[in-house]
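Sample 1 of the test manifest.
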Amino acid sequence: MEEIKVFCPATIANVSCGFDVLGLALDAVGDEMIVRKVPEKGIHITKIKGQDLPLAADKNVAGVAGLALLEQSGYSGGFEIEIDKRIKPGSGIGSSAASSAGAVWAMNELLGRPFSNLELVKFAMQGEKLASDVAHADNVAPAIYGGFTLVRSYDPLDIVTIPTPPELYATVIHPQIEIKTSDSRKILKSTIPMEKGIRQWGNLGGLIAGLFQNDYDLIGRSLEDHIVEPIRSILIPGFDNIKANALKADALGGGISGSGPSIFALSKGKETAEKVAQSMRETYQKVGIPFDIHVSKINAQGVKPIV
Amino acid sequence: MEEIKVFCPATIANVSCGFDVLGLALDAVGDEMIVRKVPEKGIHITKIKGQDLPLAADKNVAGVAGLALLEQSGYSGGFEIEIDKRIKPGSGIGSSAASSAGAVWAMNELLGRPFSNLELVKFAMQGEKLASDVAHADNVAPAIYGGFTLVRSYDPLDIVTIPTPPELYATVIHPQIEIKTSDSRKILKSTIPMEKGIRQWGNLGGLIAGLFQNDYDLIGRSLEDHIVEPIRSILIPGFDNIKANALKADALGGGISGSGPSIFALSKGKETAEKVAQSMRETYQKVGIPFDIHVSKINAQGVKPIV
């Protein structure tokens, strides 16, 4: 195989009580990317559609992730990349992660899969480092593994895949305002009350158990974050109303996607997820900020070829 | 049925990263209790073997838990209780919880099971309140449900049962020193660093996933507590050596049982758990404090009839 076209999923990181550890991959929104083997060494980004992003490999997240893989591969040639950038940067649904993950996943396919998913995550994390100064894994892990992933540890990197209940859908609203990841980091406190910590790990335990057992009610009860959401949600106009109305529309629960501004809700069944989308639409039209809404099944596969 | 004899399991609460939420039931150590229906109203503790504990129902944890059940039951008679107290109070393996849980479980059987396990936990929590001023559920829940239980929330009370991997064994050493639960509470800090909180919920997520998947290595990697263990272990002579040597003897991991002084390790297979017991024995003989050691399968059933 000399060329592959792939779908690079958007992802939700910081899934409620899983702040900094739990992420999931979406199916209805993502970038598309064509990667082809070329004799010239290095990564050559030849085309980026949809966004004004640098073509220079060392300034582009897909390029940086790809170079990290190339360096370990022993492959004497290079790769050309064309990116159709459909996820808006800064939206909070893993725009940079999609490009980083897609690039290394596609290259691995073209080289005959010499690398494990864990190694691919490590390469893609280099793209994340370029994007936000932190080599975090909570978006690239679900983008590569698919479904829900837990980053249990960074040293050593330990990614745990969590099963995806078959009827679980996400609804995501992206208010078109800018929140810088670095700013939304800064407003977090460096210490938390023990009592809130206990509630958080109790809820994360419940959420993981709910995902393993397809127990949608338990998933819903566990989607509580008393630590980060109360602080960061202040930066997102209309957050409280969006969330309250999503719950009224029968969402299981929800929260801030990544570091915002996107807000997500999880629901049992597509019909409910659409109803939640409608409630978000009605709520946000009153806020007066432009927005996009996505309804998506959880993507259990991660990056995948487009045939 | 007018009379029942039950085994009331010892339990390990605060299972490592599951501080205040995760507990498990043991099989090889527990109290025995005979409960019988009598026409006289109230709870009548007629005999306590093995420990010097009050017979007055309102001063005994089994009595208080039983009275809470009686009040809700509509039953016009009462119960007689004989307790063979084999778990030493203050050992950190749920001595009071075993009595509270055993009493209400047995009464529920004799009344034809009018109450759910969740209701039984609520009654038994009244016994815990008498014992330690706090109506905590992390020992009585595994004693009643069996296996691993997660107390996701207290308000409302939400107990999540977690499956027990078939080859999982616990080794517990009880150094015969006294640590008051109230003292071991006092030395804990009321705030924790966010970064340690994130590691804790990452580990708890990994532990729950490991238990669901019978992934013993993941269970072992996740048995890390960077928050409570470093502080409380100071109160337990020889803790660091016991733990280090247990790991050398192939234990998956371990920590403080409850608020101590008991120390537990989890292992894959009975043979390894016995080897861990031997390493604990050798380590503690040098400390010079008397001790008991128990090796036990995880008790997936909880309180059970003795026939």
